[in-house]
Amino acid sequence: MKRRAVKKRRQSAAEKIAQIIREAVEAGISVEMEGLGLFRPAEGGFEFVRDTAPTIFIAYVREDLAKARRLYHDLEALGFRPWLDLEKLLPGQNWSRSIERTIEVSDFFIPCFSKNSVSKRGHFQSELRYALECASRLPLDEIFVIPVRLDDCALPRRILSQIHYVNLFPEWEKGIRRVRAAIEREARSREQRRLPLAG
């Protein structure tokens, strides 16, 4: 009896969401479902455009917020879907679980290393450890963690010994081009691995 009531509530909630989307699209408003795509008005009704842009989690320490925001906006301008806690977390969200979940489902993880972050204890270090744990479950040749240096800091041995990094100093734009190239190449590689072999 209880299961039936829960199922009925879920159906009711799904129907309400579908109704809201339908009404918005009929009014000429596009509705974005983050991570899924966009419902938008089209001739004869609506169309759904799947979101294929890579998602990128940006990890940083508060002292480097301005540079992390710059990185966020640069990646967004390139057509990627970056994720920065201050831009994406909603009031009332369980931020710890939201961050872990976002790292798990992201296509890439960019830790921003600096003289501020390498010696600081706290969330940055735990996010980095969790991302490395997630990366350990992927095929060895797949790129997930893309470390960037914001200044002339010493990187942790584990990063230096396993993963190539990108300098965003002294030439920020050059570093961004290298990050973009890595993301685009890996995204193409993943897409090719997903395509069925012709035969």
Describe what is shown at a glance.
With 199 residues, the protein is of the alpha/beta class.
Give structural notes.
- The protein is α/β, with parallel strands linked by helices.
- It is built from eight helices and eight strands.
- It has helices at about 1-25, 65-75, 85-90, 95-105, 115-120, 125-135, 155-160, 170-195; strands spanning about 30-35, 35-40, 45-50, 55-60, 80-85, 110-115, 150, 165.
- Strands 5-4-6-7-8 form a five-stranded parallel beta sheet, sandwiched between helices. A three-stranded antiparallel beta sheet has the order 1-2-3, covered by helices on one side.
- Helix 4 (about 95-105) runs parallel beside helix 6 (about 125-135).
- The protein is globular, with a radius of gyration of 20 Å.
- It starts with a helix and ends in a 5-residue tail after the last helix.
Which terms summarize this structure?
50% helix, 2 domains, single chain, 3-stranded antiparallel beta sheet, globular, Rossmann fold, 199 residues, 8 helices, 5-stranded parallel beta sheet, alpha/beta
